[in-house]
């Protein structure tokens, strides 16, 4: 299987652990992820301003790049990129007048966009095109004894037109962890917001969010929290130091990308995991479970 792949900006720098482990895992599962040529930033977040058509050009241009390559599907791993691309695509597909204006803005493009590219998250490909049974058959190092709290945050399940699963009680990550031989831990905060961009000028708000989210995971006996968003990863991982200063009863916890757990279970080496990019090191936990 060959799929057009959109990496987004962060996976090329601060979240190389996300990209490297994703590409390794998909390759092991028989998916050739072909990076989109001439891709550009998606815009990071979906614009909510009243007159925002110009702000839809960035994500739609990426869909044109996929179309130029003869692809009807575009896969991405970053939850924020996915949400932005998916919602821009939904708008293009449901509003002919807006689509015509967006194409007019992009008059120098060789083709018009016609809403003919499907935006997929890696987890959708895993669930709907590969299947958990096939993944289970490829596992060489089961995540035995690892209790994982699956954190979706906002971008995978909100709003409805962008959701990859049930908005209140999603299960795709739990199903994946089970297929990898781990033990998913259900916890109350799995779709809570991490604080998002408040981390820039109000880190104490994010620290309070981290305290609640990781605290809820710990209360259910989780060893680690698995995420799919680089911003969630930063807030829940790198803001633990601030959280500890504000909450003396807080205990640190490693935060990992779901793709890193996939890579481990599918036989990936430590070089693929890029554990050096974590603030709270996952290596001691993983080594203690015999996974490194």
From TrEMBL:
<keyword id="KW-0560">Oxidoreductase</keyword>
<dbReference type="GO" id="GO:0016491">
    <property type="term" value="F:oxidoreductase activity"/>
</dbReference>
<dbReference type="Pfam" id="PF02754">
    <property type="entry name" value="CCG"/>
</dbReference>
<protein>
    <submittedName>
        <fullName>CoB--CoM heterodisulfide reductase iron-sulfur subunit B family protein</fullName>
    </submittedName>
</protein>
<dbReference type="InterPro" id="IPR051278">
    <property type="entry name" value="HdrB/HdrD_reductase"/>
</dbReference>
<feature type="domain" description="Cysteine-rich">
    <location>
        <begin position="148"/>
        <end position="237"/>
    </location>
</feature>
<dbReference type="InterPro" id="IPR004017">
    <property type="entry name" value="Cys_rich_dom"/>
</dbReference>
<feature type="domain" description="Cysteine-rich">
    <location>
        <begin position="4"/>
        <end position="86"/>
    </location>
</feature>
């Amino acid at each position: 299987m060959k799929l057009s792949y959109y990496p987004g900006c962060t996976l090329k720098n601060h979240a190389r652990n996300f990209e490297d482990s994703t590409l390794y895992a998909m390759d092991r599962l028989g998916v050739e992820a072909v990076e989109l040529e001439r891709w550009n930033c998606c815009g990071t977040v979906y614009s909510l301003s009243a007159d925002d058509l110009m702000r839809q050009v960035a994500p739609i241009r990426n869909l044109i790049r996929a179309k130029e390559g003869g692809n009807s599907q575009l896969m991405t791993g970053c939850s924020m990129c996915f949400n932005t691309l998916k919602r821009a695509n939904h708008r293009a597909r449901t509003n002919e007048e807006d689509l015509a204006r967006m194409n007019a803005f992009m008059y120098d493009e060789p083709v018009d966009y016609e809403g003919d590219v499907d935006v997929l998250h890696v987890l959708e490909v895993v669930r709907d095109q590969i299947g958990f049974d096939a993944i289970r058959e490829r596992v060489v190092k089961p995540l035995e004894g690892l209790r994982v709290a699956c954190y979706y945050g906002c971008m995978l399940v909100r709003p409805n037109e962008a959701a990859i699963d049930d908005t209140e009680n999603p299960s795709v990550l739990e199903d994946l962890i089970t297929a990898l031989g781990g033990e998913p831990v259900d916890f109350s905060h799995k779709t809570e917001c991490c604080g998002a961009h408040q981390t820039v000028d109000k880190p104490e708000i994010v620290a309070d969010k981290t305290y609640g989210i990781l605290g809820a995971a710990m209360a259910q006996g989780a060893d680690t929290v698995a995420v799919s968003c680089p911003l969630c990863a930063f807030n829940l991982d790198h803001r633990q130091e601030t959280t500890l200063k504000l909450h003396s009863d807080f205990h640190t916890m490693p935060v990992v990308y779901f793709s890193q757990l996939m890579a481990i279970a599918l036989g990936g080496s430590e070089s693929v995991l890029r554990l050096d990019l974590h603030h709270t090191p996952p290596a001691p936990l993983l080594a203690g479970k015999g996974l490194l």
